[in-house]
Write a structure and sequence with these properties.
This protein is an all-alpha fold and 217 residues long. It is 79% helix and 0% strand. Helix 2 crosses helix 4, helix 2 crosses helix 8 and helix 4 packs antiparallel against helix 5.
């Protein structure tokens, strides 16, 4: 019994650690493209393009197109997924710009305080209970963030933008009646046309670095 319970927990823990390792390494990845002369918008467009390619492959392999089609029948879901895609685009673009322009600490701080903002939204929008222990933990995090902001000596708009946008994104996604894979596919699908058109018609590119062809004109 212990083994059966522990196995999923270990898988979840391992998956979480792997996700954060990948997420933490992203600034290095984005800077590889930035150092080759690509702008933040170009990197963002490439990210969306290849996200669409890989998530389509995953959906095809798992045979999930039918469930995605059912999500499209619900106008409320589509509206919220369009809004979440818009917010996610803003969040991604700010993050990529920050990490490729010497603001990695401010960007990291944004995702550090995001759980604090999520707790705030959960308490006042979804009326979720807040125990004294959780309230004390939030106070400690708030004081730590306030101290870090004081050290910076200025209002960290990057930090606040990332935390707030990702928090709003979470609220919108909570209103969607669809699983994670279906929702992510539809969000990416909404972003894809704009990214593809940008990569094709960007006057500064002959072919993007995201394709195996010569890049700069």
């Amino acid at each position: 019994m212990i083994t059966k319970i522990a196995a999923p927990n270990l898988i979840g823990l391992g998956s979480g650690i792997l996700c954060f390792l990948i997420w933490g390494s992203l600034p290095l990845f984005w800077n590889l493209f930035s150092s080759s002369g690509l702008s933040s918008v170009q990197i963002m467009a490439g990210r969306v393009f290849w996200s669409m390619v890989f998530i389509t492959l995953i959906v095809a392999i798992l045979g999930k197109f039918k469930s995605i089609f059912l999500v499209f029948k619900n106008r409320r879901n589509i509206l919220f997924l369009f809004l979440s895609a818009l917010i996610l685009t803003i969040n991604w673009l700010i993050y990529i710009w920050a990490t490729t322009n010497g603001h990695i600490i401010e960007a990291s701080l944004g995702y550090f305080i995001n759980p604090l903002f999520n707790l705030f939204l959960g308490r006042f929008i979804f009326k979720e209970p807040l125990s004294p222990t959780k309230a004390f933990s939030i106070l400690l995090v708030f004081l730590a963030v306030a101290w870090q902001i004081m050290i910076m000596g200025h209002i960290p708009w990057i930090t606040l933008s990332l935390a707030i946008s990702f928090g709003i994104y979470g609220v919108i996604r909570k209103m969607v009646d669809a699983n994670t894979l279906d929702s992510t596919f539809i969000e990416t699908l909404f972003m894809f046309p704009y990214a593809a058109l940008y990569l094709l018609f960007d006057p500064n590119l002959a072919y993007s670095n995201f394709f195996p062809y010569p890049t700069q004109r």
